[in-house]
Amino acid sequence: MERWGERQETITLPWLWYTLRSQWKWVVAGVLLGVALAVAIIIFSERRHEAKVKILIESPVGGMPSGAGSLSSLLGTGSPDLNTQVEVLLSRPLLEQVQQQSNIQEPFRDFEKRFRATSQRNTNVVDLTTSDNTPEGAQRLADLWAQAYLQYVRALYEKNPSTLVEKLSRELQAQEDSLRDAGRRITVFLKQRQLVAPEEELVKSVEQYADLLESLREQEARQIALQRQVEAIRAHLQREPKFHESLRNLAIPPEVQQLNTKIAELEIERRGLLQEFQPQAPEVQVVEQQIAQAKLERENLLAKAVDQQFITLSKQEAANPVYADLMRALFTAESELDATRATLGVLQRQQVQFEQLFRRTPDLMAEYTDLKRQYEAALTVWTEKVRAYEQARAQQLIGKVSPVILQPPALPDLPTFPRPVLTTGLGIVFGMMLGILGALAMGWRNRQLVNRWEVERLL
Q1: CA-CA distance, 246 to 244, in Å (whole number)?
Q2: Cβ-contact 391, 21 below 8 angstroms
Q3: E strand or H helix at 402, and its extent?
């Protein structure tokens, strides 16, 4: 028992402080050693740069129950879809593609250490981190990794075509054929009937028909008035017996009748142009000039005909001036009456054409409406088929998730290893720990009794 008591040693805090103070050289040596080690690491170690990419991965609607996702977030395990995509990102086939594209010749075990993928908690974002000895290399690796992942995911789900997509594709093709056939039937119908826009043309035809009826009433009233005027002039002529028998059978020259027909057609053309253009429009002015020119020619022909007739009569007997004035008025009235009749003839022919068109319009519009309804129904079904096909196709191409690059890789500005300040601080801490251990070991081995702390420790 006494020997055991002699060998027992006691360590107290004052003794520790005394030992560290007396063995301060060991502490300083340890700190210097740590600093030297840190400087060596900073100078001689290989530089490592890291580039980061953020990928947003949207889960499909209804792909995972909301309760399960919330429970996973509370437990800190993350979304199952994101965890699956992390495994896909770190899969060997994908990394081998990146290694082949980057042309980095090193064992795959060392190459895969360059990549790190982590999912952010309570988000749909996955962080991709790549490392290389140059900033450009790290940025290039991150970009290659992200692009290869997007292509790999699409190719992965492309290998398993959906039956729904194939079915919708066949239905869409059949609906496109039906829509094309309906459009072709409408085109053939319009070509056969020489129509462009049936509804607009019908409205325009009704307006033109109303204007035509008004013009007909005006011309009929004008014709009645001219007939009365002619009868009055003829009755007045009967009171001039000298030239009655020789001039009462005078006929209107055929040239005047042709001009009357031409004037009537130009008047109808002018009324049609006035419905579309202003009176000052160049098209209307040209037609009015043609009408004025035709009327001037008609007046010249009438005057010439009357003069020639009176020249012939003057060789037989002296002409009566009153009778000559009445004859000129009669010629003018009969010419206007003939022009009115020509205009009425043209208008009546147009009226017949409009009435024939209106008799055929109900059948035409019924057929056109039926064709148009078939086309619109086919177009509606085709639109729905296209929407369903695009949704199914997108689901097939992207799969269960939809990855999008949220943040492209940026060029690293500082290396991640070594960090001079952090490395130096760790070296100092490590060296200080070594120096303290060395100082304590030397103080423990010392058996000399130089102060009361040593006496307390040893005795």
Answers
A1: 6
A2: no
A3: strand 402-407
CB atoms within 10 A of CB 245: 8
d(CA 236, CA 216): 30
Residues 146 and 409: beta-carbon distance below 8 Å? yes
∠303-307-310 over CA atoms, to 5°? 140
Nearest-angstrom CA–CA distance, 12 and 1: 23
pLDDT tens-digit readout, 135-187: 898 899 999 999 999 888 877 665 555 566 777 778 888 888 888 888 888 88
DSSP string over 118-139: EEPTTSSEEEEEEEESSHHHHH
pTM: 0.39
CA dist., res. 235 & res. 50, Å (int): 119
pLDDT at 203 over 80: no
Cβ-contact 131, 104 below 8 angstroms: no
CA distance 297 to 50: 98
331 to each of 259, 300, 302, 416, how far by Cα in Å? 14, 12, 7, 114
Structure tokens at 100: 């082949």
pLDDT at 63 over 60: no
pLDDT band of 59, cuts 50, 70, 90: low
DSSP string, 248-310: TT----HHHHHHHHHHHHHHHHHHHHHTTS-TTSHHHHHHHHHHHHHHHHHHHHHHHHHHHHH
* Residues in contact with 229: Cβ distance below 8 Å, sequence separation at least 6, in sequence order: 333
Q: Bigger pLDDT: 209 or 89? A: 89
C-beta pairs of 84-90 under 8 Å, 24+ apart in sequence: 85/57, 85/119, 85/126, 85/153, 85/401, 85/403, 86/117, 86/118, 86/119, 86/126, 88/149, 88/152, 88/153, 88/156, 89/115, 89/117, 89/126, 89/128, 89/145, 89/149, 90/115, 90/117
Give tens-digit pLDDT for 392-408.
Answer: 666 655 555 678 888 88
- Scan for tokens 């004052």, then name that residue: 14
